[in-house]
């Protein structure tokens, strides 16, 4: 199954998604940022608390054969992308607009427009908007199963599947 379709299957829907997208589009317009004509993912990570834990992912490309992915990631003020890591994916984050508090391993950084942070596989990371913020993620291709969230209540990613040899 296509990775974007997997993401769309767990996206927020209905009035809450429409409100989030309206606020996102208003902010992007105010910033004067151009976006391609695609449907973004409005993610609450299955926790039902989008304002606190969520983001809007705007997939520009996820080219498995070519070996790269590019996404815009939008968080509102105080909204967090939850702590997670990847076993194989290397990512680089670039702050396009706004400011975020980025946790990467044991470090906490305040990242401003123009700041860049590479994140190696296996390194736990998360980020929170300090005001609205737009990041560009450049990475290896996105595979939903390569997301390992610290919060085990998140029902997607590698940690959502049973671990061979382990019983609950």
Describe what you observe in this structure.
This protein has 168 residues and is mainly β. A six-stranded antiparallel beta sheet has the order 1-2-3-10-5-8, sandwiched between helices. The chain has a single domain, classed as Jelly Rolls, CATH 2.60.120.10. Helix content is 15%, strand content 38%. The radius of gyration is 15 Å and the shape is globular. It has helices spanning 3-9, 14-31; strands spanning 41-43, 55-63, 68-75, 80-85, 91-97, 99-104, 107-112, 116-119, 125-129, 133-139, 148-149. It contains two helices and eleven strands; from the N terminus they run ααβββββββββββ. The relative contact order is 0.19.
Low-confidence stretches: 163-168
Q: How many domains, as an integer?
A: 1
Q: What percent of residues are in strands?
A: 35-45%
**Number of helix segments?**
2
CATH names the topology as: Jelly Rolls
Which structural class matches the secondary elements? mainly beta
CATH architecture annotation = Sandwich
How are strands sequenced across the largest beta sheet?
1-2-3-10-5-8
Largest sheet composition: 6 strands, antiparallel
What is the CATH class? Mainly Beta
CATH superfamily, called what?
Answer: Jelly Rolls
First and last CA, distance:
28 Å
Q: What are the secondary-structure elements, in order, as H or E?
A: HHEEEEEEEEEEE
Question: How much is the radius of gyration in Å?
Answer: 15 Å
The amount of helix comes to: 10-25%
């Amino acid at each position: 199954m296509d990775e974007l379709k997997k993401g769309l299957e767990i996206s927020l829907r209905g009035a809450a998604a429409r409100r989030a997208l309206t606020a996102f589009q208003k902010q992007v317009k105010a910033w004067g940022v151009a976006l391609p004509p695609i449907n973004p993912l409005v993610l609450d990570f299955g926790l039902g608390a989008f304002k606190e834990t969520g983001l809007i992912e705007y997939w520009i490309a996820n080219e498995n054969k070519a070996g790269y992915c590019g996404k815009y990631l939008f968080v509102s003020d105080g909204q967090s992308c939850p702590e997670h890591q990847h076993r194989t994916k290397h990512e680089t984050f670039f702050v396009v607009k706004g400011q975020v508090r980025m946790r990467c391993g044991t470090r906490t950084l305040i990242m401003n427009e123009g700041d860049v942070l590479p994140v190696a596989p296996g390194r736990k990371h998360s980020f929170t908007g300090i005001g609205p913020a737009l990041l560009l993620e450049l990475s290896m291709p996105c595979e939903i199963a390569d997301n390992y969230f610290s919060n085990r209540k998140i029902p997607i990613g590698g940690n959502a599947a049973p671990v061979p040899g382990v019983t609950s």
